[in-house]
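On clarity, I found the account of how folds are encoded harder to follow than it need be. Since the whole study asks how a given chain folds, the encoding of that fold should be made plain. For illustration, here is how one protein appears when written out as sequence plus structure tokens:

:::
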Amino acid sequence: MLDACLTHRRPDGLFHDVLDDPGSFVEANVAQMLAYAALTGVADGWLPAAYRDVGRDLLAAATRQVDRHGLVRPVSGAPDFTRPGTSPEAQAFHLLAYAALRRAG
């Protein structure tokens, strides 16, 4: 699934809100979620070590979107997730991905 999602990655490392719809807005949370998956997979041994670099790169792309208040944006915005904004889920995934990076080394 990770590899299938990565085929939709934009040159800036992010994804569209609807992965295969370039008309949908660009957002950072998919990159964070995939970073978490890749880095957790490496740390837990169910993905090859090569995914560590993929996870780091995805997380770096999302980190470039952190604003001066420490919020990751744009992400699918709460409460209805139909437009760019912020959400507690996106902030949580940023922290989860960094914790996975730490575990993956």
Notes: The first helix runs from residue 2 to 6. The chain is about 50% helix and 10% strand. The longest strand covers residues 15-16.
